[in-house]
């Protein structure tokens, strides 16, 4: 083959590969080996937790509870202080790949990405140095991933791998869901199944008899509260995601609701 034609073929293959990286998830793609990290990708490290069935990832600092029934499954991660942002990152989605350039090739599954939702906080461990066990200590960006998600990109024996990551829009089935907890004068609402940004910046609540939106505060993770007496009243929520999109979930909570009930809307962020 003439050198020029061979070069053209190689370039074509390279382009096809790059396109595959952009489109694919949990599938074989190419991670660029040129430095620095490709545009839009940031550097971090990643470990795993929670066991082969991810049972140990249930609960978690975002408050999503049972991740299987809530639809998050085993594609989840706990974020270090630098990434968790006091819970403001809860629900965000990240595409992660082993950084072949920095990794021990024995422990890296190159050409694969996995997308996870932030469901937990990886706390600092100041008893251990950041480069030897204190992986989640500030200022380190670190993903402690559910083991099945991590094993998509890393080899179990490796334990920790350097990764590249970028935030991506979350893909969800169905609408946003609201679970009501707390008690009288302490209305605690867990917001789950948020698509696109995935994370909530602010929200208000309104009872059907009123014209006033009552601001809610982030209580912990994806739980928001107000101190108004709302028990049993038909409720609407006005929610702004961290990308600035606002949706009104009119009368999404029906009259006569009980603490512990979950209400699914038909509306979803785009
Ligand atoms: C990943 O871990 C290595 C080893 O501790 C460290 O040198 C590197 O700075 C870490 N990367 C990031 C982005 O924190």
From TrEMBL:
Family matches, as InterPro entries: Expan_Lol_pI (IPR007118), Expansin (IPR002963), Expansin/allergen_DPBB_dom (IPR007112), Expansin_CBD (IPR007117), Expansin_CBD_sf (IPR036749), RlpA-like_DPBB (IPR009009), RlpA-like_sf (IPR036908)
Record's subcellular location: Secreted, Cell wall; Membrane
Coiled coil: none
Signal peptide positions (record): 1-24
Domain annotation Expansin-like EG45: ranges: 59-175
Superkingdom assignment: Eukaryota
Name of this protein: Expansin
Taxonomic path: Eukaryota, Viridiplantae, Streptophyta, Embryophyta, Tracheophyta
């Amino acid at each position: 083959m003439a050198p020029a034609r061979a070069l053209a073929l190689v370039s074509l293959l390279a382009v096809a590969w790059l396109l595959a990286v952009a489109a694919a998830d949990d599938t074989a793609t190419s991670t660029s080996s040129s430095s620095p990290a490709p545009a839009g990708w940031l550097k971090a490290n990643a470990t795993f937790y929670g066991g082969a069935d991810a049972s140990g990832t249930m609960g978690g600092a975002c408050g999503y509870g049972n991740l299987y029934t809530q639809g998050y499954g085993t594609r989840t991660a706990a974020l270090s202080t630098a990434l968790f942002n006091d819970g403001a990152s809860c629900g965000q989605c990240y595409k992660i790949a082993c950084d072949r350039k920095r990794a021990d090739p024995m422990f890296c599954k190159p050409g694969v990405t996995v997308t996870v939702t932030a469901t937990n906080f990886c706390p600092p461990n100041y008893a251990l140095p950041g480069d030897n066990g204190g992986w989640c200590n500030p200022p380190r960006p670190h993903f402690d991933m559910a083991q099945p998600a991590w094993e998509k990109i890393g080899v179990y024996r490796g334990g920790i791998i350097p990764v590249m990551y970028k935030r991506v829009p979350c893909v969800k089935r169905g609408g946003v869901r609201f679970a009501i907890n707390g008690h009288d004068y302490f209305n605690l609402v867990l917001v789950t199944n948020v698509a696109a940004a995935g994370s909530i910046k602010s929200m208000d609540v309104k009872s059907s008899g009123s014209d006033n939106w009552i601001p809610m505060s982030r209580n912990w993770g994806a739980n928001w509260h107000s101190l108004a007496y709302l028990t049993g009243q038909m409720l609407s929520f006005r929610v702004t995601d961290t990308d600035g999109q606002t949706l009104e979930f009119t009368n999404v909570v029906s009259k006569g609701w009980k603490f512990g009930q979950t209400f699914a809307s038909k509306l979803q962020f785009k």
